[in-house]
Structure formats: structure tokens, C-alpha cells
Design goal:
Layout: E1 30-37, H1 42-45, E2 50-55, H2 68-71, E3 78-79, H3 82-94, E4 100-103, H4 109-121, E5 128-132, H5 138-142, E6 150-154, H6 160-167, H7 172-187, E7 191-192, E8 196-197, H8 198-205, E9 219-228, H9 234-248, E10 253-257, H10 278-290, E11 296-298
Parallel strand pairs: 2-4, 4-5, 5-6, 6-9, 9-10, 10-11
Antiparallel strand pairs: 1-2, 1-3, 7-8, 7-9
The structure holds iron/sulfur cluster (SF4).
């Protein structure tokens, strides 16, 4: 962190001397929330919840950020030492979490690695999920090789014009595709509880009804790529789906999301200041299925509710 190059911004901030880089964070981990979270994909949240740790700050800084309350420079949160984060993980495991879900941790990876090593020594056995914007350096991901069981990565946009406009990152798609390739290399093909592979898992879901509590298997290893559809950007979404499927085939799960919620920062951008229509989302899902997608998660109607955004009220269980 003396000349930080952890994320693709590679801004070179001397965080050891107190400088803050593009991500707005100094040398030590800060977390905004740690709790059980029910709204990830069903094979992650299960019925007991995912033990989610939200880190403060973010190197991507999208103007549409759904977690804007904690991703900015002045994000409220608490500084934690590696031993304390280990305690949080062990507490969440004890509370029934199916996994530990690290949300936007890229700018703290060296300390996260130390924390996980301590937690594992003290008895952490549940899978580790690394939940990311997808804007990641392969070199940094390699520090997590063997520690992370499941990658939950966004692939937000194809167009450099769109990624520049929303995230000031014209290289987003290219960087994200290389990152996803590294994630899949590390995790291998998806594996679920009971040793189910993707085909067996998909078949096992056919008997589940929509109304019932989720009774399917939990993911134990693998990579899920999420694409949050944006209003008016169907053609970009179609390209994202095509590129992912053509490069990674059945070696990952694709989660197509319709829960986009307009945030105050884009109130003057009329095209983004609305929710995704049912018609737009259906066209995207139909396209993915027609293109042969077998490993997919889709969302039902009514998911674009603010209640999917966790209450960032300073809750940190375990310390
Ligand atoms: S993690 Fe932060 S300080 Fe490091 S390169 Fe990225 S933006 Fe800069």
C-alpha cells in the first residue's frame, strides 16, 4: 500500500503514510455493516442468510451506486484490525450464516487475507464469498487464490461510453472479463452441497415451487456473474450476455437482475432515473434462454424495491 496498485485505478497513493486514493480509504480496513443478509442468490442466502461484511469505500464509484451510503469517501464505518474481522466472521458462522460474504473488499485485500488466515486457524469452516464490482486486477485476485470459494462478481456494462459515463472507467468491460477468467480459473466449475454439479443442481430445482422457502442446495464453490440491467440499455445488456456466454460457456452462473433503483445522484439524467420495465427485462431473459443459457438466475416482478438495500445503521455483529 506504499504506492497502491491493488485495483485497476492503480492510482499509486501512499496509503501507509495516510494518503487516500481514488477509493477514499487509508491503510486500515473499515467496515460499515456485518450481519446476516437474505437477498443474495438463493444458493448463497439459503434460509439462514449469508454472513455479509460490507466494506467502506469503493474504487469504482458509480453514480448509480445502490450502496451509495457506504461507498463514498466519507462512508461511516469502523476501523477493524485483522483479528477483529476474524472475530466477526466466527460470530456470523456461529449465528448460522451459510457463508462469509465480503462485499467490495478489493482495496483492503492484504488485510482481508490476514483476517481469513486468522479466522480459519480459529475454526472458520463455511465458504468464503468474494462479492465484487468486477473491476479487479488479476494480480490482486491471485492473493485470494485458495482462500475464496465463491466469486460473486458484477459485469455491469459492455460499452466503454456507458462505463465512462457511469463509473469513469472506459476499460471496465475488458478488465472485468480478465478478472472473471481468473475467478473461474480459481474456483473451477460450480459445485453445490452434496457434490451436485450445475446440471444436477438445475435439475433439482425443477420440483421447487416459487412460493416455498428455498429448499435447494447451497453453492460450495464456483463463480456467479451478476448483470444489473439498466433502464434503456437493452442492447448493452444483450452484448454483455453474449460475450459472457461465448467466453465462459457453462463454467459459471449468470444472474440477470432487474432490481435497479434510481439514486439521487442521477436525478437529472432522465434516461437512468426510472426503473427497468418488465418488457425490457423479459427481452433480456428471453434472449439469454434462446442463446442457450442453462446456468442462470432470474428475478421476479417487484424486486426494484429500496428494501433490497440493507439498512446501513452501523450494525457490526461480533465485536
Ligand atoms: S485500491 Fe484505492 S488507493 Fe489502491 S489503487 Fe485502487 S483506488 Fe488507488
Amino acid at each position: 500500500m506504499g504506492s497502491c496498485r491493488l485495483c485497476p485505478r492503480m492510482c499509486g497513493a501512499d496509503r501507509e503514510k495516510g494518503e487516500k486514493g481514488y477509493c477514499g480509504q487509508g491503510a486500515h480496513m473499515r467496515i460499515a455493516r456485518a450481519s446476516l443478509h437474505a437477498w443474495e442468490e438463493p444458493c448463497i442466502s439459503g434460509t439462514g442468510g449469508s454472513g455479509t461484511v460490507f466494506f467502506c469505500g469503493c474504487p469504482l464509484g458509480c453514480v448509480i451506486c445502490q450502496n451509495a451510503a457506504i461507498s463514498g469517501r466519507k462512508a461511516p464505518g469502523r476501523e477493524v484490525a485483522p483479528g477483529e474481522l476474524a472475530e466477526v466472521c466466527l460470530y456470523l458462522q456461529e449465528a448460522g450464516a451459510h457463508n462469509i460474504n465480503l462485499v467490495t473488499a478489493v482495496h483492503f485485500v492484504p488485510e482481508v487475507v490476514r483476517s481469513l488466515a486468522i479466522a480459519v486457524r480459529r475454526g472458520l469452516t463455511i465458504p468464503i464469498v468474494y462479492n465484487t464490482s468486477g473491476y479487479e486486477n488479476v494480480e490482486t485476485l491471485r492473493m485470494l487464490d485458495g482462500l475464496v470459494d465463491i466469486y460473486l462478481a458484477d459485469c455491469k456494462y459492455f460499452s466503454p461510453v456507458l462505463s465512462q459515463r457511469i463509473s469513469r472507467a472506459p476499460d471496465y468491460f475488458t478488465v472485468c472479463m480478465e478478472a472473471v477468467a481468473e475467478m473461474i480459473r480459481q474456483t473451477g466449475d460450480p459445485v453445490f452441497a452434496g457434490g451436485l454439479d450445475a446440471a444436477a443442481y438445475n435439475a433439482s430445482l425443477e420440483d421447487l415451487t416459487e412460493e416455498a422457502d428455498y429448499a435447494g442446495a447451497l453453492m460450495e464453490r464456483g463463480t456467479i456473474v451478476r448483470h444489473l440491467m439498466l433502464p434503456g440499455q437493452l442492447s448493452d445488456s444483450l452484448r454483455v450476455v453474449d460475450e459472457l456466454m461465448s467466453r465462459f460457456g457453462d463454467h459459471f452462473y449468470l444472474s440477470l437482475m432487474n432490481q435497479y433503483t434510481p439514486m439521487p445522484l442521477i436525478a437529472d439524467q432522465t434516461d437512468l432515473n426510472r426503473r427497468v420495465s418488465e418488457e425490457e427485462y423479459e427481452k433480456l431473459v428471453d434472449h439469454a434462454i434462446a442463446a442457450g443459457l442453462k446456468n442462470g438466475f432470474f428475478q421476479g416482478e417487484g424486486t426494484a424495491e429500496e428494501s433490497f438495500i440493507p439498512p446501513f445503521d452501523g450494525t457490526i455483529l461480533g465485536i
